Amino acid sequence: GVLCVVIYKISYTNQERIRDKAALNAVSYADRMIADLNNGITITKSLEQIIISENGQIEHFEKVAENMMTDSIQSIQLAPGGVVTDIYPSEGNETGKIDLLHDKDRGKISCYARDNHTIITQGPFKLKQGGSGIAVRNPIFLKDENGLEYFWGFTIVVLRVPDIFSDAVSALSSFGYEYRISKTDAPWSDTYNIISQSNDSLINPVSYTFTIGEEEWMFEVAPQGGWRNNLLIAKTSVILIANVIL
User: Fold this and answer.
1) Cβ atoms < 10 Å from Cβ of 101
2) CA distances from residue 23 to 4, 30, 44, 177 in whole angstroms, order as listed
3) Are 120 and 112 in contact, with CB atoms under 8 Å apart?
């Protein structure tokens, strides 16, 4: 009986240690993901600065966007008045020229971004080129000649998922972790949508939540094969049983 209690105690303490380590890892990899997402947001902010300084114009959009592109970006877009007019790269993205404020799937959240002066992230949605994407939409406001603020439109970056998280994700799997990334589907919602996951059966994961724009994100981590360190328990059992026999 005492033997069982000792083995259980060792197993439990070890499990706690593994969970603590996983929780620390979740935080550090979530920080990487936040940095990756913020890179996308920074592009929308850089375009905003150009639009403000050029008084609502953006010369040589193609060239500017080309310089901002990275592997994990699907496209960079401008939507004056809420209507997408410019997309880089233009090839294969022609169908993306839509009226965001009146679109069935994007209207409500785009109006929310405009009315609340806040960046929103929407997705994941299927990309026509394959894979999934998340749209980052930044509402831009300029001042007219009377100094009154008006809505100019959106600067937009569409990020490829899970490419945007590839650094964090590959590091996680090399350390033997399964993961799941989810986000709330709108600022007014508590419903989480899965954005990317390595395995659909995460056992009792540790989770870390963070906020981007006005949506909550959740990052969950669990060791491949579960939390119990069966090898340690087996070794401990053998040693303890041997001691008892002796």
Assistant:
1) 19
2) 28, 10, 32, 11
3) yes
Binning the chain into helix, strand and coil, the percentages to the nearest 5 are 40, 30, 30
Q: Where are the beta strands (DSSP E) in 59-112?
A: 73-80, 86-88
For residues 159 and 163, which has the higher predicted lDDT (pLDDT)? 159
Sheet holding 132-143, edge to edge: 86-88, 73-80, 149-161, 132-143, 120-126
The model's pLDDT over 37-62, given as tens digits with 9 standing for 90+, comes to: 999 999 999 999 999 999 898 889 99
- Contacts with 148 (C-beta within 8 Å, 6 or more apart), sequence order: none
Task: Give the full edge-to-edge strand order of the sheet including 192-197.
Answer: 192-197, 177-184, 215-223, 206-212
> What are the tokens at 200?
């659909």
CB 43 within 8 A of CB 157: yes
Mean pLDDT of 189-214: 87
